[in-house]
Design brief:
single chain; alpha+beta; 2 domains; eight-stranded antiparallel β-sheet; seven-stranded antiparallel β-sheet; 2 helices; 15 strands; 47% strand; globular
Length: 248
């Protein structure tokens, strides 16, 4: 009976080892201090009828909130949905002015500092639609992902829309890649800045996180041989035990 027990114990040990080798990692994000989003609208009204700038700090996940800025002739609204596996930013800019011959501008900018718990695949997607106008419309976009205080740029994208209705693909990098792998224990900085002048725009930006593919580690032949040996010994002992009982 002890041989049979050894036989099954051997197989159970191998099963547990294989499960540990092939178990998928869950690369959740951990938000770090210093994560902030800021909305700004200009110009500042000389009569004080304005709320030209607002910032929102993020400390824990999940986050579902909105903030904005508003002055005569320009406003911005930012909606933020930040979770352990996805950061989503939805931004509305309206800087069409009041008919005065001056610059009206709306800006959204922010920095998200985070780490991941395991090796994690990132994917950056999004788009920005900018309207035209007859008063020198202008829009600027910038998105980047990089390890904090490191020169390596994992992803950088942006675009300038000076005069016509256009759409900017925020997943089309100027450098780096829109998808890649992040490592645990490294602090990453996800930055964005969007400016709209004398026109309007709508932006959606998404950073998605998913467990990195886990390579299945081959089990050494010696382990399989040891398992087979346990099985043979167990069977041999079981047969010997039965023979002894029959002779008795």
């Amino acid at each position: 009976m002890r041989g049979a027990v050894s036989h099954w114990v051997g197989f159970c040990a191998i099963g547990l080892m294989l499960a540990a080798v092939s178990a998928p990692a869950r690369g959740d994000a951990i938000l770090l201090p210093g994560s902030v989003a800021t909305e700004t609208a200009t110009p500042v009204d000389p009569n004080g009828i304005n709320d030209p700038s607002n910032s929102r700090s993020f400390t824990t996940l999940p986050v579902a909130t909105a903030t904005g800025a508003n002055v005569p002739g320009a406003f911005t609204v930012g909606s933020y949905h930040l979770g352990a596996t996805q950061f989503q930013f939805d931004l509305i800019h309206d800087a069409r002015g009041t008919g005065e011959d001056k610059l009206f501008q709306a800006t959204s900018e922010g920095t998200i500092l985070f780490q991941v718990t395991e090796a994690t695949t990132y994917t950056i997607s999004g788009s920005r639609t900018v309207a035209g106008g007859d008063r020198d419309p202008f829009a600027f976009s910038l998105v980047s992902l990089t390890p904090l205080n490191e020169p390596d740029l994992f992803f950088g994208a942006g675009g300038v829309s000076p005069a016509v209705t256009t759409q900017v693909d925020l997943a089309a990098p100027l450098s780096g890649s829109a998808t890649g792998t992040l490592q645990a224990g490294v602090t990453y900085e996800f930055d964005y800045a969007f400016t709209t002048s004398n026109t309007e725009s709508r932006t959606q930006l998404i950073l998605s996180l998913a467990p990195a593919p886990v390579e299945t580690v081959p089990v050494p032949a010696a382990v399989w041989g040891g398992t087979a040996l346990l099985g043979v010994l167990g069977l041999s002992r079981l047969r010997s035990r039965r023979a002894t009982l029959e002779r008795a």
